């Protein structure tokens, strides 16, 4: 309902509003995955679904839906989950347009969602 209400709201943003929103988006970009998996996942030789894992973390942290996050995360094959915390994500982090701390986030997912 909140989404429908927001979509129907015809309030016009001022230029200053838009600038403020752009600044906020820029400052908080490392907390938001854009789902551009083709950028980061091709830099890791283990087929790790980085983008999906970022989304599962979002379910937990942003939507407060830990059960959903755990359910999806544990659908990843166990062997992959056991190795993903030890991969080198440095190139993925260099390429990420959101400058997300991918290595740290993957390790958190392994620890918190397994
Ligand atoms: S490159 Fe960054 S923003 Fe894009 S999918 Fe990977 S982690 Fe998310």
Named once each, the bound ligands are: iron/sulfur cluster
Secondary-structure-derived class: mainly alpha
Count of DSSP strands: 0
Radius of gyration: 17 Å
| Count of structural domains | 1
Residue windows where pLDDT falls under 50 for at least 5 positions: none
Form type: globular
Strand content: under 5%
Instruction: Summarize model confidence as the mean pLDDT.
Output: 94
Question: Would you list the SSEs in sequence order as H and E?
Answer: HHHHHHHH
How would you summarize what this structure contains?
The protein has helices at 2-8, 15-27, 37-40, 50-61, 66-73, 78-84, 90-95, 102-113.
Description:
The protein is an all-alpha fold and 114 residues long. The chain contains eight helices and no strands. Helix 4 runs antiparallel to helix 5 and helix 4 crosses helix 8. The radius of gyration is 17 Å and the shape is globular. It starts with a helix and ends with a helix.
